[in-house]
Amino acid sequence: MPGSSLPSIFTDVSVFKVTAPGNSHNFNIIGISTTHQILAASSCLTKDGEAIFALSTSHGSVLLVKLPPHGIQGIPTQHELKQSSMMQRLFSGFVPSVIRGGSDAADCASSLVLHAVGQDIFVFAVSRDHKIRMWSCKDYDCVMAADMLEFMPYNERRATLTIRDEGHIIKKCVSSSRQTFYIGVFLSFSTDCQFSILEPVYVDGRYQLNHITDVFGPEDDLIDFCLTDDSLWMLWSSSHGDVYASHASVEYKKTGIRTMNTVIREPRQPGELSVPGHLEPREYYLEQIFYPGRFNTLAIIRALNIFKHSVDNIQVLNSMVPLEALKTEVLAAIEQEIQDTASDYSVSDDEYQNLQLQQWAKFYSCCVQYHERSTKPLGVFVDGENGLVSVVKKDTTSFYRPCGSVEYLSLTDPGQCSVEALHKEVILHEDESTFQDVIELCDCLKLIDGCLTDEIVYSFEQDLYHAQDPITVAKSIVALLININDYNYAERQKIDEAFIRLQHVQHLDRAIEAVMMLLDLTNNEQEAMTDDTGVDASHQLCLSRLFSSDMGVHVLSTAIHQVAQCHLDVSRDLLLLLTLIIHMTDQVALDQAVLVKIQSEFISKACVLVRVYYMMKWLAEVMTMPTTANQVDTNIQMLESLGLLERVKPDSYQNITDSKDSRLMELFISMTGGQKMKEVLCNSNLLDENSCQFWTRSLPSVLRAMLQIIWPYNSCVTLPMFLLSQCQYTILQQYVHLTEDWCDVNNYPKSFLLGLVYFSSGEIEKAVDCFLKVPLDVTSEDFLCQLVVADDSQDYDPRMVYYLKILNLLEQFHHPHLAVSVAKNAISISNEDDDILATLWSKVFKNELELGHNEDAYTAMLSNPDKDRRRDCLRQFLVVLCERSELQTLVSLPYRDRHVVLEDEVVSILESRARSIDLTKHSYYDLLYSFHVFRQNYRKAGSIMYEYGVRQGREISGLKGLQKQAKCYLAALNALRLVSPEYAWIVKPLPPSTDVDQMDRIASKRDLDGKEFKFSKKCQVDVLELEDIFKEYILVHARLQLLQTCPEPGYMSGPTLNAPESVALLVDSGLFDSAVNICKIFKLSLAPVFEGLALRCVTLAENNTTRTQGDNQYMADAWRWLQHNELVPANAVQDNSATDHVWRLLQNLLCKYEDGTGVYHKCVAVKFFTHGFPLPTWLEESYKKLDAAALLRLYLDYNMLEEAAYLTMEYIDAVRGKGKEFFSVKTSLHVGGSPVWLPYTSIDQLIISLDEERRQPFTELSEQIQDKLDVYFNELKQVSDDTLRAGGMQQ
């Protein structure tokens, strides 16, 4: 098999490194003329690291050179080894070679080999005089000389033997135990040649050679040979220039002559190609040139460089060019050559077709020439440790592997197969006649193969690629062969010879069965697919390294391709032969039972084998498809959603994108396929075999294990799963397409994987169709059974678990419409008591809701049998409709059917959402209000809106929050007013931190007995009626008024204001009507209102007197707050200034709200007096009518003596009856009238205060008051006396 182009061990060698003192030594050969040449050489390293070189010279001596160990300074030495007398040595030392003439060349060594024995190293040299000499490198003496002619069987011909130009060759072999070694000598004569295997032994103080065996070779030229523990490998060149290899088994414990066996050669590449008529030359030649393993890249590049030079293009490609780029370069070069060759600018189609064929044939011929040149064998190498046989070529390395029985029967020349080679096949019958029949049948197949042209073979495989029936294709080929062979005597003769050979087959049916058994790998499938449980760890470690290198992977991949190709050829030829037998029964004397069996059984089996091996050949040839990082990410998500990601190695994705220009089979072997193969071989005794046989024994087992892994009838899905995991969707789709019509194994897993391919390609509908093809009994397939294993311990129906996997996949990649279809399909086949039914209804609900099908989602929610899942669906349903603003739908749905009532749960969910979500994001309270109003539940509507308003005031600051709060209170009031009065109340909602939460944080206590207990504290519930809610609304409305008149930040934030605080702020802002309204509602005193209004009157009056009215800013401010109060209309003669309006407002409020006690007049008067402002006339007159005595006391309190004096005198006159209508005096002093009184205490205080002033006009006022009092007392005495007299008379 061809190998990869490996880098040479001399890759980094340079002239500088070679000539470095530590790596080389220059010396002169003492005593040797420059006319003599070095004929052979050998080298070795001692245990001490010294390098020893043995050089054979043309004058018969051996020059021995010793170099010191690498890196150590030392003196190189040289010695000449020659067997001669003392006089010959002196003569050669003193007489120059020119004088003494040329020496006899008969004893010059043609080949050398070095070997260490004990403490000494010996040189074994085979000379042209047919003798072997053994030299000691320690003593520089010849310790043994033996004549090889003694080992030849024909002694009488010794004198006539003539040696060939290449001379004899000697090689050595060390046993695996390292105890003995053998030497192999190739004796090359002009008439014949032979290999003699000898064993050097030390007997009685001297060395001698024991003859082991002989192997006689052909008359061809030997290129190289290699000797191992058990075999002799030879590389030959024939007289025609063909190179071939042969080998012979060697048993060192048995003497005798061994037979040489020729190795099956790799077929040479055809020099010309015949392009099928239905194909373009470019397409066909590209496919053949870049066919995997046909030409190495270096040969194509060299051919292309030469071809491009021929078209005057100086660009030269190197070996690092990618494969796709190389194809592009080839196409460009061929097209350029066609254009340069065309004589005219316009050519016909036929002319262009001929030009294409000429140029492509020319380039293909260059590729073949460079391929043959680069693959010219130079030597053979056999690894004695494991039996690996390799052929070293100019640019590459090839390996020889053991071939199977089918390959042996197919590739061996007719008549050369032996029955002994088939004895190892235990699946065949033990009858010797059966073996002979198989050989005869295979010779017939070779004759059929010789009738097939390349075009027929290519068309046959193309028909298989397009999934056509092989039987139909075979019938057409047979008809073609019969028609063509009627005019082609040579081809007709081959068919006739095949039928003649069939007559020699004694039992044709048994022979056909035997061949089919050899082709069928199903026979040992169960034996191969064993478990690796209990395998030794060291055994597993060794197996893990088996064929794990790049070269090992390439070797195994190439071997699979070769086996698949060979088996395909045999299966195809067998199918054609059977078809020929059926078509030409008159020329074949067969039993009727055999013919019936061929027609009914063998042809169908051959058809299956053809399909199987074509599929395996296609897998070995197909290149990996380029993969992007996005495809990898999508693939990981898809596998993870299905629970299949753990079946793929986590590090297997690292090399996916780097697998460009590589064969799929190599990638499969290096990853999943190789791991599976090693698991299969774990229980075998593969590593227990002899190490020398490891290559020959392990490779067939490994190869068979890999073939069984990719065998279509294998029950495991390792290969399809690998294709899926590596994103090779196109290849997986073609794999399923190639096997779906005839392979009934893993049909449903393949359908499932094909669905994943469609899914990854975006064809989701096709994917779902493939998923639903899986039968109801998913446990019938191992892969599907592993897929549906539930993660938990619940005993779920595997069918339902499978559907859930598909649903998860569709949901993750957002295909809700198909998820609904799959879920409904699962529901239709599920049992009513299945626990997973609730999950399926939840899936239907979720995806219907995602699609916007609210009614269908609602129906699915009500159909869910599980209460908890139904509540979860309901919660999601409400949230999604709210987010979509489909509130009309949400409110109008009934949320009930014959078995389920969900209204309370709807309210509970909405209330929970309303209380937990931020009020600025979404208002679930409005939704709840609408929900209750729609159902005419006005009490709950009012309660929810009140709660909304409370939260607005607590959590939302600013004008909008207050406005919303006010609207909420109004809505609550409107709702409650629609309820019967006895039910028009609500429960005040608790604050966020409830007493229950506080009690949970209290540490537990213990009683006197030590028993633990907790405090129990009942939550207090507040009941709110319409009046209470209205009061809260008024306060909020007042705050809004404050913000409208004075938008200060302090009014927008902070806790809710109580009534006194609201009144104070309203008065401060000039909103006296609103302040009065709050006082009335909350039954508060109006004193703060009148005090504030009185103060504004004083301020306006003072500003009105100090500034002009036009530019008084304070007046403008007064007008702003006055417009928010109810103003008293003025008369035509009255002034309409702001000051006058304020005074009229004060007068109006006092008249309207004075309760008769004079408390509001007093607070107004006090405010005036405090600011040193006199009472206006209307106020003084009103106060006198209300309580003159109180006014007098106020005058005295503020030391307004003059005003008090005049008031006292007027009051005295009013009591006497003069002007009593201006005071709060109902009657005057007269006989029979009601008693009257005067505030004597206040009058006395006034007189005293006036007297203390002792200045005018206070003294005069004091006297006038005294005079008034005197008059009053006199009248009082007279009236009292008259009253007494009138009373006495009456008595």
From TrEMBL:
Gene Ontology CC terms: nuclear pore
Ranges for domain NUP160 C-terminal TPR: 1025-1286
Molecular function via GO: structural constituent of nuclear pore
Keywords, alphabetical: Nucleus, Transport
Pfam families recorded: Beta-prop_Nup120_160, NUP160_helical, TPR_NUP160_120_M, TPR_Nup160_C
Main location: nucleus
InterPro entries on file: Beta-prop_Nup120_160, Nucleoporin_Nup160, NUP160_helical, TPR_NUP160_C, TPR_NUP160_M
Membrane-spanning parts: none
Localization (cell): Nucleus
Keyword flag Transmembrane: no
Nucleoporin Nup120/160 beta-propeller domain location: 8-407
Domain NUP160 middle TPR: 711-978
NUP160 helical domain residues: 431-668
Protein name from the UniProt record: Nuclear pore complex protein Nup160
